[in-house]
Amino acid sequence: MDLENIVMQIIINSGEARSHCLNAIREARQKNYSKAEELLQTAKEALSRAHQIQTEMIQEEIRGNGQPVSMIMVHAQDHLMNALTVRDLATEMIEIVKNQDIKE
């Protein structure tokens, strides 16, 4: 697979994960906690795929087979970091919503 397709896989998987996290928050707001957890798990799997691709690229660079940094690669890294942040925030927000529901 060429570099552009590899980088696009990071973007696609990161975007999928971000969307699942936001949908998980929406489900939690509707008190659909099992669906929220299911969506977080799906997001985790997409993030794992993106991270695996990133790790393989890093390992190739360590072996001396690195690729030049391009704007699309920077864009992919932005997507991945954003998705990781959204996942962390979604996890915390869902716990807050659950705890408020328990107290009511």
UniProtKB/TrEMBL annotation:
Cofactor: Mg(2+)
Chain sites annotated for binding Mg(2+): D78
Residues with the Phosphohistidine modification: H75
MF-aspect GO terms: metal ion binding; transferase activity
SUPFAM superfamilies on file: Enzyme IIa from lactose specific PTS, IIa-lac (SSF46973)
Residues in coiled coil: 26-56
InterPro entries noted in UniProt: PTS_IIA_lac/cel, PTS_IIA_lac/cel_sf
Claim: Transferase is one of the keywords in the record: yes
Keyword Magnesium in annotation: yes
Active site: H75
Cofactor binding summary note: Binds 1 Mg(2+) ion per trimer.
UniProt KW keywords: Coiled coil, Magnesium, Metal-binding, Phosphotransferase system, Sugar transport, Transferase, Transport
UniProt name for this protein: PTS lactose/cellobiose transporter subunit IIA
